[in-house]
Structures are given as structure tokens and as C-alpha cells.
Amino acid sequence: MPSIPLYSPSNLTQYMESPFASWMDRFAKECPEQAPPRDPEDALMASLAKKGYAHELSLKAWFIEQGLEFETIEQDSSVDKNKQTLTLMNKGVDVIAQARLRQDNFAGYADFLVKIIHTDGDQPSIFGDWHYEVWDAKLTSSLKPAFVIQLCCYSDMLESIQGIRPKFITVALGRGQNERLRTNDFFDYYQQLKMSFIKAQQAFNAQQQPDPADSNNWGEWRTCAEQMLKDQDHLLQVATITKSQIKKLNSAGINTMQQLVDCRLDHVIGLNPKVFNTLRAQANIQKRSVQPTELGLPPKFEIIKPQPFEKTGLALLPPHSPQDVFFDIEGYPLEEGGLEYLWGCTYFTPDNTIDFIDFWAHDAEQEKTAFVEFIHWVYQRWQQDSSMHIYHYANYEITACRKLMGRYGICEEQVDQLLRNQVFVDLYTIVKGGVLLGEPRYSIKNVEHLYRGKRKTEVGNGGDSVVVYEQWRSLHQQGEQGNTWQTSSILKSIRDYNMDDCESTQQLTVWLRKQQEANNIAFLGTTDIVEPDKTQEITERTLLRDRLLHRAEQERDTNPAQARLTENLAWFLEFHRREAKPVFWRLFERLGSTDVDLLDDLDCLAVCQRTARHGFKPGPRVRNLAYEYQFNTAQDFKGSHKQYYILGLETEDGKPTKVSVVQDETHLEQGIITLQSKHEPPAVVTLVPDDFINPNPIPQAIEQSVRDYEAGTLIAGNCAILDFLTRAKPRFKDQSFKLDQASASTHTLDHIIQAIKNLDHSYLTIQGPPGAGKTYTGKHVIAKLVQAGAMIGIASNSHKAINNLVLSTAQYCATKNISADFACTKDTDPALLQHQVAIVKNADLLNHIQPGCVIGTTAWGFAREDLAEQLDYLFIDEAGQVAVANLIAMSRAAKNLVFMGDQMQLGQPSQGTHPADSGLSILDYLLRETPTIPEDMGIFLGTTYRMHSLINQFVSKHIYEGKLVSHPDNDQRIIEVPPHYQGPLNQQAGIVFIPVVHQGNTQASGEEAAQIQHLAQSLIGRTFHATKNSTRPIDWQDMLFVAPYNHQVSTLTAALGDKAKVGSVDKFQGQEAPIVFLSMCASDANDSPRGLAFLFDQHRLNVAISRAQTLVIVVGNPKLGSTSVTSVEQLKLVNLFNGIMAAGAKKN
Which of 739-748, 910-919, 970-979, 1126-1135 has the lowest mean pLDDT? Predict the structure, then answer.
């Protein structure tokens, strides 16, 4: 009888990181004579593995120091090790080292099993009132996804032994920190991975080698994989090509590079003609470079000459300055938030020789110092010569400067000046726009084949530097490497590599200038110094900030909590200025891009063609003409802005030309946009949005509140905003009143009303999960307050959210004959006027404030000076989306604050990087990462009146810590399954996952749209039980069709027709329907716009699923569950999607 193959947790993690490497390992084991050689072993990694044993011994010593009973498994055979492990577990030994675990095909040795004593209410294990958790010792200083999956695998084995899945797993890191993680945050991903791995092993065929292009890395088989791609003439070798583009080329019968070169098609469906021609030209020059490079000669290249006055390519390369700097950063992304640990610069000395300077950082404080020293050094050189520039390759360096400037609140004026004057020069942008290169990549390592010989440094690339730096951190903790490059051979090798990169950047600049001169291309960049506008108001605000930061430093030792408050208030002063910075940076970058670059930018609209319609006046009193343009609807475009800049078109004074959208003449779904302009625009335009929104008077109101704090007139114990900012528990007039008198699921309206009436210049938070009656609660509470003569304000980020609560309250007051006056500042619904809600301007709000009134507006209204201290209560709806900075501005208007929202639904749309806690939303500031509000801090509406229990089980478990319960009546809402139905929608309620396999889709999937159209049609006419005694046939109004991207929204609309309610997650927040379809649409989350974090965002998935009353149908590529991850946070996000697939696969 053949033995059962055994796999280890390490086999599983290798498969996770590279299915190709996993297959090659199996192939090498079974066919050793046919297998190619592996890549050389890294001697340093082998040395590190040995050091890991010492780390385990130190952890053993720590356990013993805690007084724990410690045993090590020391039997010889694996069978005996298993038996000894079980014996010690039954005995209840505190810590078991090198425990041998086995379940089915998996077996392995856990570093440590740690005994957990149960508390009251815990489920007993087969051992009794204890169970075991897994601890793993890792010499590294940061968590990695592979560690977590290994521990999930051991936890799975443990569950089969003890009958209980461990709630937590622990990784003991080399820096002495123990990271304790929730097992269930990762277990669905692990289970999917395990199932996929076993299937791959069962299907192994030595004659069917996998495509290396399907793996993101190749482990020890990189040389083999690259040769395979070369032998196949694979399209993946074409520089800058994407998997989505490969799919479209494959659909046109183009499967190899040579076929792309030889192709005579004018266009390929789904590819912009410019993109197609660029890919063909790239493949062509790479093919022509094969022979020269094999002979050791440089690759072929062509200079792309810009059109007259076109600011692209070599036209962006400035002249030489003796003060020029050539700059490169080495970063360590595995640290939380990243660590920029080496800032290297090559420069010219006064005698014109090349020198090198480096700034090092091994922790956050050193990073801050290194950044300051670097900025001061380059800024001083720029002041000596304003024609000086800082050259770097790719956007990483400038992104790092912006990030650290925001994170630490330092060097902002200098960095702003350098950015404003275009001192940073990205040579990658110049090369990509100005050189067609016969290389498979446009990295500087490839480009330098044109101007220098082969590198001789030990570290080969940026990826290598991350690995090597990680090795240094581990060995440094063991005392085997110094912390400077002079005392560490590893740091010296990284420095040599960085220095080589800087020198290569300098040599590339020289080579590019030669090409610029040879092709008579003039520099078209800026030469005039642009000074920032410094108003007296901003200067005084900056002085106030600096005084508070100095005060915070003085308070830090004696009163840390006060110091944190003071520091946060200092940074709140700068919130809107920091929010504006990325807006202008992004505008500058977009205006420096090409139309092809902007094709995938969701906010831009590239290559719009003028229609035959002549310019016309869009209204009788309009002076400027409007012009109609047509665009390809396959381009994903938000279309949410009112004004746009035209790419490459400037006014007479050198400013970008701005146009306005004529909304009544624009039909985005038909590919029509109409623009109003002072002068006639060109026949073809690319539109770049104007994102700036004037924040006044909000910054002025924030400043006044902060000045009051500095002056001591904001008094703790008598100030709602101070209670909130210090995260104090709500204060009540009746000191005997307790918030936690009722459980989350039994809070009554009377209890909530009593709490709010009892507020004593304080605040209260009401967390309302989906369908929990937040608006219902709000309108009842406000009605009771206005009935007693209170003056109420309602605020949020959007007028729609504000007016929803205003209107609901007005309608309720009308039914109860409660006399109240209502006003808001934007007409969003005809029902407002029908219920006597006055539509007024912010300047007129004061005239509507009187006893028994409700006024609704945004922060732009409540921050006005004339509304200060006018209200009894300010209700802030969707508080998870409202910035604390705006709250501070609005809080001056009211005695008490009431926050309504849910931090687990859509969050704050923030753009800037903010120091300390100054960039958080109200609920994120208050609760940090806590999914549900503690009972003594606020009210959790713990019953959903919307979701069927089969849907709520998933939402409650994965989002709300199991605390959200479904009202029993919800289960009366079911959809009957027709007799003899054989399709996938064969259940009355719950979650269904429909797998649709596809490749190359990033923003839209026709395959999913077709499946959804078929499924929706099968639901039309089914009997819906709305209540126990009420039924009706399902029609289109009973279904919501949700997609993450506007392109898929358009695809679904085209497939389903106008009768279907189709939109993004943002559109449907606050709505509900019996049935919700969610189309994931992307083939690979890492290739999708805004990346994995957006597609799998738990807040967005929560909102999408929780719109459903009865049935959720998630349609997606099942391979999304295998999305490769680079961090534990990403692993947690993908786990949620795997949870959806698992829930949708069950027969509910």
C-alpha cells in the first residue's frame, strides 16, 4: 500500500509565494536528472538560519523565567515524537518545545505550544479547561505573511487534536517583541491556500510545466524561469506590458513577441491605438537588440523627439549645474510604515571631482534626523545656485520626501520650495518619454547598458538590498554586526550598491544631455524662481503651531496625555494645508504626463475627440461657447469634477487652461462630455481635474479653538471638544447615569434619549452598523430634543447625508404634531420643500436659529464665526467620514456633540499625510482600530433590522466581533426557489459565491457581466416574502448591482439595461434591497487600479454585502483568493474575501 505523502507548513508557504518554485521543487525531487540547476544558495541566509536556533534558546529561557513548566520533545522517530507530544498536552504541561503535530497530509514541528487556561464561558477542549496555542520564534524584526500561514497550519493541526481552534497565534520576533494575532483574521486565506496546494500536488504532471509568468517570483529558480520565458518568446518580456494588455493581444491572436512585431492590425480591441503602437515599437526594438546584446554590445535605442513646445522626454532635462546632486534612497518596507534607512548622494566638489555623502537611519528617530540633514544639505546647495537640480530615478525618492515631511511635520517649507521650483528631476520620466530602449525593463540597471559596464557590487538590486538589510538587522540584534558601514560588512555592501546607483544616475544624466544636444532638443522646464505665497494669517498660524509644539515637548515628561493633546492641536492647525499639498502635487504630476500615461487615471479623461457639432451657447445669458467631445467609454472615468485643465495647453501667462463641464449637455455613459471654454479648445484634448476646494472658513475656526486652548479658556470638565480630544468618557448632569446599564442589543430609545438629554457639555457616540436603525434613532432623539425647545444642528461631509436626517426628522415631527423649524443649505430632494424645510445660504443660517429648530449644513456653515455658541446640540452623521479637524471647527457652534456613524463602513476621504493623530476621522480618533465601541464610551446599536441571519452571521463574525445580531423577523424575508430549479441560486437566503475564471481584467469583466445578467434574469418573477404575510414577485427594483470600478458599472449597465440599479459602493451606502449582486471584476487584485487594499477594503466589502436584506450574490474570479501578498495587513484583507467565498460556498 503506497504511503500518504506528507507536506510541511513550509511547503505550503513556498506555494503561496511562488507556485512555479513549488512545482520546480517537486519536479527536481521526482526527476532529478532532468531538472535544471537551482540558483546559488545565499550563504548569509544559511548563516541566519543557524542564528535562529539561538533565538529559540533565549525564548526558552524567558519561558522558564516566568515560572512555567517547560518540556522539549526529544524522541527519535516521528511516531514517538507524536506520542510524546500528545502525552504532554494531556498532562497539561505549560510549554512544549519542538512539538510534533500531524493532520492528514500535513505534519511538522512547532517551536512552542503554550498552554492557555480557560475563563468562564469558554468552550472546553478535550483536555478540559485548557488548550494550546502555537508560538514561533523568528529571528527577523518584522512580521511576514509566511509566518502567519505557518502558524495557521499548526493551529489547524492543533484543532484536530484538542477540538478547539486556538484564538491566537504568536510570533516571537528577534527584537524581543511578541506579536499576537487573531487566528480567524487569516484562517480563511490559509484554508483556501491549503486546498489549492493539495489540488496542485494531486494534479502534478512532470510533462506539464507551469507558466512562470503566472508567479510573481521564482524563488531559487529565477534563472530557469527567465530562460523559459525567453524560449517561449513570451509577451511578458515586452517592457512595461501589463497582464491586461497581454490578454487583449492574445484575444487578437498575438501570443509572442515576434507576432506582435509582425502584426499588421491597425488596432486591437480594448487597447488604445497609441498604447498598441508603443507596445509594438517596444517589442520591435527589443528583438533588434537580441543579437548585439548577445555579442556584448549595447542594446539598440531610438530618441523620441517631442513636438514643438511639448514638455516631454528630453525637453524636461535641465542644463548642468556644479551644485547638482544625484540621489538614491534605500528603503525597508517590512517595518510598519516603512523605514528609509539610507539617503545617498553623489555630487561635485568645488574642484569638480565626484564625491559621495550618506545619511543613515535604523529607527524612526534616526530617520527623522537623516531626513532633516539631507534636506538641509540639498537646500543649501540650491540656495547657492538656483539652477541646481536633484536627479533621481523613478518616483520613490520624491514620494519618500513627501511622506516624511508629513509624518514628522518637518522641513515643509524647504521641501515645498524644492517641489514648487521643480528641483527634483525624475530621470525615469525623461527616459520613458524620450528613449525607446531595446531592454525588457526600463530600470536603471537596464538603461545603464547604454553608457557603462557591468556592475561589480555584491548587492544586485533594490530587492536584494531589502533582503540584505533584513539580514543585517537580525545579526545586529545578535551583536554580530556593527551599526555603521565602517563596522558592518553588510552595511558597507549596501552602501557600495547605493553609491553605484548614484554614480549611475550621474552618468545617465551626462548621456542624456549628449542625446539632447545631438537631437537639438531644447529644455522647456521652469527657470524662474517661484516664491510661495505667505499671508500674514498663515505666518501667525505657523507661529502658534510652533509655540504649541514647544509646549508639548515641555509637557512630555510630566504629563504625557496633555502633551499628546497639545501636539495634536498644533498639527490640527495645518490639516487643510496638508490636505491641499497632494492636490497640487498630483496636478503638477498629471500636467507633466502624456495622454497615454493618463489613460488609467480614474479622474482624468484621455484623448477626447471633438464631434461634428459646432460650438454653441449652453444658455441664453452665457458668454463662452461650449464644445462637444467624444471619448471611449472603455476608459474608466469618475466624471465627478466640474472643472478640468487641458493637458499641454497654457494661457498667455503660462498657466494651464481650464474648462468647465456643461452638465446638461454631458452624457458620460454615451461617451459624450461637453466643455465650456473662453477660447476654442483643440480638436483632441486630455482632461486633468481641478481638485482644489477652498476650505475657508474652516481653518480660521480651527485656529480660534486652538488659541482658546492656548489661552486656557477651553476648560476640561466644561467643554465637549476637550472631552472628545482627550477620549474621556461622556459626562452627564446626573452623575449616577451609566451608559452601560443596557446591553448593546437592548438599548432602548428612552435610554438613548435620556443619555443625550443628560449630556453636560460633553459628547456621545452612537455606532450604527448596517440596518441597525441609526437614522430611526436619530430622528426620534432630535424630535424629543426640539419638542423641549432645543436648538439642533446636523452636519456631515455631504449635503445628501445631512438632508436625509433633516428630512426624516421633519417627516416624523409632522406625524407627531411636534412644532419645529427646519433649514438646510442645499436642495437635494423635492420633499424638503414639501415638509417646510427652508433652503438657505450659510450666511443666513443665524436667522433661522431659535428654540425648537433644526438646521443642516456642512463644516463650511457651522465653522462660521456668527454661529459660535448658538446651538444646544450638534449631531454629526456619518462621523466615520468626518475629519477631527473639521469637528474642532464646528464644535464652537454647540454645547454638546452627538456622533452617529460606523467606523467599519466607508471612511474619511483623506489625501494628505498628517503627523500624530491629526489626520484621523472622528470615530477612528476615538476608537482607533476597535470594531465596536466599548459600552462605557458610547452606544452600539447591536440589532440589525435589515439582514437575514445567514448574511448577518458573516458580517457580524468578520466585521463586528460577533456582537451584531439579526432581529428574528428578518428571517421572514426569503425568496422562494422555483420547483425543479437546477442552477446555482438554489437557496432562499444567505450568501452565494459564483466563480467566474478570467484573465487580464483590471477594471471591468464582460465575463462577470454576462453571468450576472443571466442570474438576474433567473431571479425575476421569483416570489419574495417581504414579511410573514406579504409576498410579491421579484423585479429589477429589488436588486442592487454593485461594482468597485466605474468601468464595470458601465459594463453592467450595458448588459442589464437602464432598468437595473447599478453603481459603486459609495453610491449605495445607506440603501437596501432584497438582493445584492457584487461584481469583483478584477482578475488579479495586484494589477487592479488602486491595488489590493482598495479591492478588498473591509469597509467597502462590508457596505456592499450589508445592503442586502435576503440574498447576496458575489461574482468573481476565485483566483482572487490566492492573491499574492507582501504584508500581514494585506493577508488580512485577502482573508476577508476568502471568508466571503467560504460563506458563499456553503448550502445555507
Answer: 739-748
Other Cβ atoms less than 10 A from the Cβ of 840: the count is 18
In this prediction, residues 518-529 reach a mean pLDDT of 85
Q: Is 485 helix (H, G, I), strand (E, B) or coil?
A: coil
Q: What is the pLDDT of residues 414-460, one digit of tens each?
A: 998 999 899 999 999 999 999 999 999 999 999 999 999 887 776 66
**Phi-psi region for residue 163, left (φ > 0), alpha (ψ -120 to 50) or beta?**
left
Element (H, E) at 521: none
Distance, in Å, from the CA atom of 793 to the CA atom of 985, rounded to the nearest integer, reads 46
Three cell numbers written together for 200:
496542485
How many CB atoms lie under 10 A from the CB of residue 164? 20
Residue (of 134, 42, 191) closest to 1146 by Cα position? 191
CA angle, 149 as apex, 146 and 153 as ends, to 5°? 140
pLDDT value at position 637?
A: 85
Q: Which residues, 6+ apart, have CB-to-CB distance to 1104 below 8 Å?
A: 1042, 1065, 1068, 1076, 1078
Q: Which of 179-193, 461-475, 625-639, 1006-1020 has the lowest mean pLDDT?
A: 461-475
Mean pLDDT value across residues 857-876: 97
pTM of the model: 0.86
Q: Which residue has the cell 426624516?
A: 808
- How many angstroms separate the CA atoms of 807 and 813, rounded? 10
DSSP 291-338: HHHHTTPPPPEEE-PPPTT---GGGG-PPP-TT-EEEEEEEETTSTT-
* CA separation for the pair 192, 215 (Å, rounded): 17
Per-residue pLDDT band for 525 (boundaries 50, 70, 90) equals: confident
Please tell me the total number of residues recorded for the chain in this structure.
Answer: 1148
User: Dihedral of CA 580/586/587/588: which sign?
Assistant: positive
φ, ψ dihedrals at 1141, nearest 5°: -60, -40
DSSP secondary structure of 1066-1079 = HHHTT--EEEEEEE
Instruction: Classify residue 800 by its DSSP letter.
Output: H
